[in-house]
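Quiz preparation item.
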């Protein structure tokens, strides 16, 4: 089955987690139809969007089956969570190696581990900091304690885990770029907003960050935040 038999529409907001999907799709050579959802204007609360996505998540990938020769609206699948969307796209495009093959037991295990660690553990720490320092919560709802906990856990757990790997490897899995690098670079870019990494204190991590910042596919497919 080929992705050419499906219409892929991404509901996204430039500058947020949607960027990871846009970049990964470009690396895979996948064409996405785009519908912008401005969460700052609460467009994800619009009834027509809630009908498609009751959880009001952005991004969301809508997959429409065209195998009968035309779009079949009765056969539509929707995926939320940027990490899940990227994993699905990667698995549906096996001819573009953005993940180790199933026959590579060790490589596959490391890939799945990093996809989950970056997409869940690291992301949740960054989100906790954002919630308690920005527009995401009203000032009287923010918690300095929660912010400090996330910062402490980042310094205590995340940096020591990343540093030896990126000191040794060009990419997170070794010499080959993968979808895990898309997620990791996005979170490192996000972490710069909160001064969680620096070139002086984290040279190996920052070298990796700079390498991918200069990657042309990322530069061409990572739109800036539009508030």
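Solution:
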């Amino acid at each position: 089955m080929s992705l050419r038999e499906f219409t892929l529409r991404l509901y996204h907001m430039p500058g947020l987690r949607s960027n990871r999907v846009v970049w990964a799709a470009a690396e895979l050579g996948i064409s996405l139809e785009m519908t912008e959802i401005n969460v700052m204007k609460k467009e994800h609360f619009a009834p027509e969007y809630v009908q498609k996505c009751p959880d009001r998540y952005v991004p969301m990938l809508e997959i429409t089956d065209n195998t009968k020769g035309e779009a079949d609206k009765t056969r539509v699948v929707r995926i939320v969570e940027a990490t899940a969307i990227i994993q699905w796209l990667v698995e549906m495009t096996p001819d573009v190696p953005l993940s180790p093959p199933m026959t590579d037991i060790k490589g596959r295990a490391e890939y799945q581990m990093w996809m989950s660690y970056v997409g869940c553990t690291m992301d949740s720490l960054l989100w906790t900091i954002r919630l308690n320092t920005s527009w995401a919560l009203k000032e009287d709802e923010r918690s300095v304690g929660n912010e400090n906990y996330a910062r402490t856990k980042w310094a205590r757990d995340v940096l020591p885990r990343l540093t030896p790997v990126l000191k040794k490897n060009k990419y997170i899995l070794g010499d080959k770029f993968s979808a895990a690098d898309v997620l990791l670079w996005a979170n490192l870019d996000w972490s710069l907003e909160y001064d969680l990494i620096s070139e002086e204190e984290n040279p190996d991590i920052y070298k990796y960050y700079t390498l991918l910042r200069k990657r042309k596919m990322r530069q061409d497919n990572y739109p800036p935040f539009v508030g």
